[in-house]
Amino acid sequence: MFDFMFLFFIIFFAFPSMAFSFSNDEYVIARKAIAKVESGGNVCAQNPYTSASGKYQFMKAWNPYFQKKYGKTWASVVPKCTATTSVKKKMEIHQDKMFDIYFKNMVEPFIEDVRTRKLAENMSDLELLAIYHRQGERGAYLFLKNGKDPYKDIAKNGHVSKHIARVVKASKQSIIASK
Fold this sequence. Notes:
It is built from six helices and no strands. The chain has helices at residues 2-14, 24-39, 63-70, 85-116, 125-146, 160-177. Helix 2 crosses helix 6 (160-177) and helix 5 (125-146) runs antiparallel to helix 6.
């Protein structure tokens, strides 16, 4: 495992433009990093400023997408904080599966398009995931085009570049913890 982690670190962080797609291990690390930054991994988390909730802090606007692709709304898999541990674990499994669907159908095509069009050759796929997850598709393209954060104050959590840095840091911590 150590050899993989070392190679992953070199490719993913030292040469970000070479990292085109996530291996399974890289994806798990990236998903954990998003969850850590968004909610501390708390499946019950509720953003006090927006409708974002759950482990990955999806907003209510995602409910129709998840209903169509997964058969459940995001809101239906975010348990109350008073829920039992077994209910929380079941909801966490649903939230992880829904994030997987979102990643495959939304994030991967975005990263592929960005790579094909050479819009962010100096950014890693992890950084592009962080931008997309924070900004949404339109906001991510706007940020890549002009470097400005069109939604800077929407969630009271600072500029997108700070968000990217937090996700990258969480990913590095996850790699170190897995050694």
